Amino acid sequence: MFYTIIEQIVNGIVSGSVYAIVAVGMTMIFGVLRAINFAHGEYYMLGTFGAWFAIEYFDLPYPVAVVIGVVATAVIAVVVGNFVMQRIVGAPAEAGVLATLGVALILQNTVILVFGGGYKFFSGGYIEPVTLFGFTLAEQRILIIVIGLIVFVGLELMVTYSRMGKAMRAVSQNIECCAVVGIDVRHIALWTFILGAALAGLSGVLTAPVNVSVYGGMGELITFKTLPIIIMGGLGNVRGTFVAAMILGIAESLVATYVGLQLRDTVGFATLMLVLMWRPHGLFSAQARF
């Protein structure tokens, strides 16, 4: 029993690492643009399809496909950021909701139109089992945990020491003051959005070998899993997002094992309701962004 519990916690940490990489991008976008990106899961999907296309049609190795998937996602994010996301800076919340929902529908249906709506086999990745401390995990799962830690350490260093990171923190705290002192708020918003979308694409490429199949509607579920994470963590709080993602990943793994797999996808919002009953503003303060 003890071994099974520990094994499910480890599996939950893997899932939590995936959610964390996706959710940190969404929470950074919210912190700077003050808008929840309802198309965020579609960038996860785009990264996956970019890597799948590189492997399927050009027979490229998985590491190269990862780079192609992330770059393709970032390029699309540049276009969307320039034409949509920059224009909702300072706009009412309703404008951001409608704009990002529209982008989600366009991206999802474009992929379905180009590649078809059926499931496709993802043949890349590292699926060989590795035994560590008595637990057996696929190499890909270990890679997900390692890259998740690298991403968060890198983000922490970036927002603390880099010029761009300091500007992002400033904009997240007070847009009006930043505009007064000469910070290009729209430029910062654009690059924050591109970074967030690229992280979602990276998460999709890392998860694809574990999920095995890819399809055009795969981004919807990721978006709905990400929403409770960023709310639980405190809207715009990066560190809180990491903790909330781990809580959700572990909770899903335990529920799937001991209650039922069919209830796994309900865990996020059930956990969110319990957390908000205890702490209405989330686990961490929304004021402590980045």
Automatic annotation (TrEMBL):
<feature type="transmembrane region" description="Helical">
    <location>
        <begin position="12"/>
        <end position="36"/>
    </location>
</feature>
<protein>
    <submittedName>
        <fullName>Branched-chain amino acid ABC transporter permease</fullName>
    </submittedName>
</protein>
<comment type="similarity">
    <text>Belongs to the binding-protein-dependent transport system permease family. LivHM subfamily.</text>
</comment>
<keyword id="KW-0472">Membrane</keyword>
<feature type="transmembrane region" description="Helical">
    <location>
        <begin position="64"/>
        <end position="85"/>
    </location>
</feature>
<keyword id="KW-1133">Transmembrane helix</keyword>
<keyword id="KW-0812">Transmembrane</keyword>
<keyword id="KW-0029">Amino-acid transport</keyword>
<feature type="transmembrane region" description="Helical">
    <location>
        <begin position="188"/>
        <end position="208"/>
    </location>
</feature>
<keyword id="KW-0813">Transport</keyword>
<dbReference type="Pfam" id="PF02653">
    <property type="entry name" value="BPD_transp_2"/>
</dbReference>
<dbReference type="InterPro" id="IPR052157">
    <property type="entry name" value="BCAA_transport_permease"/>
</dbReference>
<keyword id="KW-1003">Cell membrane</keyword>
<dbReference type="InterPro" id="IPR001851">
    <property type="entry name" value="ABC_transp_permease"/>
</dbReference>
<feature type="transmembrane region" description="Helical">
    <location>
        <begin position="242"/>
        <end position="261"/>
    </location>
</feature>
<feature type="transmembrane region" description="Helical">
    <location>
        <begin position="97"/>
        <end position="122"/>
    </location>
</feature>
<feature type="transmembrane region" description="Helical">
    <location>
        <begin position="142"/>
        <end position="161"/>
    </location>
</feature>
